[in-house]
């Protein structure tokens, strides 16, 4: 692919030959398809009928699977040593004797055998508070609802064990476990990390989606704070809602939709993760909110923003030459790099932005906890509705979290039209009431029912595949019941 991508620029060493081979810049953006079908990955609008579709066999970039070497957990031995040190009781104090008597006893006494178990005495200077369970807060109690006392640290009376008496060992181990039992209860209120968070709604019967403490990727103890932070950050990283009317003079909503539809195809050809596509659209809209651009450079802005998003999200991002190739060499490498620098400088390198995909992951989990619908059908249908929202310029008026929650609402309604799609769990984790979702859900319902049009089929074709359970072919009821948007129903 690198050879194909760089072939246009390597044809001649002279700059004049490069300009001669350069394709004419995009003159117009239209919704007119090519006579023989869609041009595919190439120029957005068909200026000449010779625009060839990018062959998926040559354009798909295989993603390298990075194998992570497993690290040895060195704390296991330290933990076991610490536990044995804290659980073994101290030996009984020896009787006080004079120095001469103790010296004579040492010289006359035969050498002792090495004891089977050598108890380790706990130093007296260590306070008892240092032995508290790390999983409990300062005011937590044990599972038997009794406060821990210093009596549990008293050493039982026993002698050194010089033989292998297993019954005595078992008795000592049992007594130590009873006195130093650490609570295994994970459902402690102290791990909720809700000190300064505002309570969203007073709702009963809420299912807990943060109960899996074994999977580190779920971040069960911090998930609530993470999404509270995302809700605050989405207001600062949003584009303007009227930049096409106030800033842009040569770009309209139809051109923007054509560009995003083409970028969906590019993301599918290169097998990019969904977050790359959502970030690309966010960068495009934020850049257009403050910089006027002509239609000939709109596709250049799109590939530059996708290059930045791929560097941010992907393990193996496509090279600059590949983005030049998918535009039929309409732009040179230097032009893509210059546009990339312009975007980065305008956005002040603030590449982290909450998108609808960020919120959709958590909302899907909340919807699947207490739902009998097929989990994959609900997830794919919600993703399909959320990606359709990227094409619609008017939906920029709604924050990403509201779009994600509305996508869940509409997806559950499509799967079960007679059942109320909203419940107490979704209201708790999305922090949206049904009445707050009404306008956005109706806009998504119109978009799903009417569709983006035959000239923008990329998203519909993407989700009509078997791997997405053909969710784009599901029929949506023609109307939404008004009672579903009453707050009292949840």
TrEMBL record:
Q: Name one GO molecular function term.
A: cyclin-dependent protein serine/threonine kinase regulator activity
Q: Where does the Cyclin C-terminal domain lie?
A: 354-477
Protein name from the UniProt record: Cyclin N-terminal domain-containing protein
The record's section on InterPro entries has: Cyclin (IPR039361), Cyclin-like_dom (IPR013763), Cyclin-like_sf (IPR036915), Cyclin_A/B-like (IPR046965), Cyclin_C-dom (IPR004367), Cyclin_N (IPR006671), Cyclins_cyclin-box (IPR048258)
> Is this entry keyworded Cell cycle?
yes
User: Gene3D superfamilies attached here?
Assistant: Cyclin-like (1.10.472.10)
What is stated as this protein's family in its record? Belongs to the cyclin family. Cyclin AB subfamily.
CDD domains the UniProt entry points to = CYCLIN_AtCycA_like_rpt1
Q: Which organism is it from?
A: Lolium multiflorum
- For this UniProt record, give its keywords in alphabetical order, as a comma-separated list: Cell cycle, Cell division, Cyclin
Q: List each copy of the Cyclin-like domain by range.
A: 261-345, 358-446
A single BP term in Gene Ontology: mitotic cell cycle phase transition
Region annotation (Disordered) maps to 1-20, 71-112
Q: Looking at the keywords, is Cell division present? A: yes
What spans are recorded as compositionally biased (Low complexity)?
1-19, 80-89
